[in-house]
Amino acid sequence: MQLHVSPSMRSLTISSNNGLIDLMKIKVAARHISYRTLFHTILILAFLLPFVFILTAIVTLEGVNKCSSFDCLGRRLGPRLLGRVDDSGQRLVKDFYKILNQVNAEEIPDGIKLPDSFNQLVSEMKNNQYDAKTFALMLRAMMEKLEREIRESKFSELMNKHFAASSIPKGLYCLSLRLTDEYSSNAHARRQLPSPELLPVLSNNSYHHFILSTDNILAASVVVNSAVQSSLRPEKIVFHIITDKKTYAGMHAWFALNPVSPAIVEVKGVHQFDWLTRENVPVLEAVENHHGIRNYYHGNHLAGANLSNTTPRTFASKLQARSPKYISLLNHLRIYLPELFPNLDKVVFLDDDVVIQRDLSPLWEIDLWGKVNGAVETCKGEDEWVMSKHFRNYFNFSHPLIAKHLDPDECAWAYGMNIFDLRTWRKTNIRETYHYWLKENLKSNLTMWKLGTLPPALIAFKGHIHPIDPSWHMLGLGYQTKTNIEKAKRAAVIHYNGQSKPWLQIGFEHLRPFWTKYVNYSNDFVRNCHILEL
């Protein structure tokens, strides 16, 4: 903005910076104007100048700087100054919303031919001169088709992940076979565990007794190695490893050839427990042999499933509930600990998908106040997958027997790292209650609950739980990628519960190092089976 007074004081000109617009030009007759009048005129113009500048800026920003007269400027600024703005754009938006609502309420015609891409849609729109309604209808049909394809892809991904989680990786299968062969050919691999002079320690309650039930040799080695390396008093550790008959030779060979002294390891197969007869565990025989049950866990998981009314998350939970491990005797063994270890008073039971990162000896000092099971409660966290679980998450409360005996808001707790007072347990009817509810669920065709061994345990241990601090047992590393790494580092035990086990390709990469640090990759059997760092 420029103000120019001619040398003769006969004219006063106000123009824009680019010189294209003379906003105001005043000619003054020299004989009829005084300097006082000129001064007042300049003063008034100086006062009005900022307002003129603002208006000019608005005009420039809106692309009207091509105007070269007050007439053009007036046409552009007049309606704005008077509060009248062109609302054609708003009317267009309202009309578009109206069309969208109409299209949303209509059915998409059968057999409609849809473009393969947005560019093709635009091209067809130009060539066929679609009206707005036809364009909106085609766009809706394309989006719904894309949503269906994404949904189907998600379900396929979940199915593939379920199969991956349920299968045995080739490397682990190789490890078991090679160690079994070593057991048959190498006397050192068959040596007694523990050595005869240490047998009394197996029932000595001054030691810290851990129990692990698994058929995964590599996972068992990680649990034992991490516990021993994290302990302040490893010489007080005794591990009782229980496995099935087919894995016993390989499991025994591993720990015979890879001792973890000063800790003591005992390996036993379920066939070596005299108490584990079909007479004592009849319900488990029914679970294993019932055709409907086996078909439920090993059959076609998509048969009869109404995926149109199922969310991917619900489907994932149902697949998790149909893991074949839930009908394995090994998974039910913890309910028989008082009978399997009659001389022990207090034990810590561990799942095979945990890693111990801190000395666990203080667990034996925790007073359970007359309760049987010291466990971390899972109803007081914020994440939806693991730490916000109540009974309603596990049971079908539309079943009359469940609705009558259970409270949907009761807090759940976790398996994986539990302190069991076996002396107190032997005075209860926990095992009988467990069997009763398993039978009732079988009678109801699995309509009371679907998910494995925890639901009947939630009922059987009802009133026998002593909550322990959550820092002892952090769950969910096999479920969610958003695990807090710093919190995981501080936890005494981290638990890869869920499908994404650290020994599988589908395990979470950023959480795997917590587990792999305890794998001996220099071991000949590990190397020969090509179990490499993932």
Automatic annotation (TrEMBL):
Its EC number is 2.4.1.-. Its main location: Golgi. The chain crosses the membrane at residues 37-61. It is an enzyme of class 2 (transferase). It is a single-pass type II membrane protein. SUPFAM superfamilies: Nucleotide-diphospho-sugar transferases. Pathway: Glycan metabolism; pectin biosynthesis. It is found in: Golgi apparatus membrane. GO terms for molecular function: polygalacturonate 4-alpha-galacturonosyltransferase activity. GO terms for biological process: cell wall organization; pectin biosynthetic process. Keywords: Cell wall biogenesis/degradation, Glycosyltransferase, Golgi apparatus, Membrane, Transferase, Transmembrane, Transmembrane helix. One of its GO terms (cellular component) is Golgi membrane. Belongs to the glycosyltransferase 8 family. This is Hexosyltransferase.
